[in-house]
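Morning. Coffee machine broken again, so started the prediction first thing and wrote up yesterday's gels while waiting. Chain of 167 residues, entered below exactly as on the submission form.
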Amino acid sequence: MIVCVRKMALLLAFAASAREAPAATQIVQVNASVSKPLSLTRIQDLDLGQIILGPGTWTNATVSISRTGTFSCSSANLTCSGAPQAAGYTVTGTNNAVVRVTAPNILLTNQSDPSKTLTLTVDSPTTVTLPNSGTKGADFSLGGSITVSSTTAGGNYAGTFNVTVDY
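Came back before lunch.
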């Protein structure tokens, strides 16, 4: 019985000393980043104008408009007219954020004969930086180029951009 009482006393003393140990405190910083949803608005469509194919047999004539609006129709086998323009968009979201822009190449389909197509190789920025709160969003443009030959079918070719913006 004395041994048992001594063991109980020892256990109580041990438990008391464990409870008396000072608490440890560590300060940890907590952060959260909240972003506004992105909004993408079309300002204007891309237009390469009217392209007139010259006579003879030839290949690889390129017509293009850069995203900065520089138009090129420099092949001697082509005559270009109209009012070419790059596509324009406005993106809005969180101030000073960098937004990634994705715009894959486009298949343009001849509206008179859907079996005839041209590929528009898209010229797009990889990122756009949104301005501070003083300005509503940021504008950016997309350009592109097509390659035609003497065998390209005549007609109106059309397609649609699949533009994605994300943080």
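Residues 35-166 form a domain with the Immunoglobulin-like fold (CATH 2.60.40). Going to sketch it on the whiteboard this afternoon.
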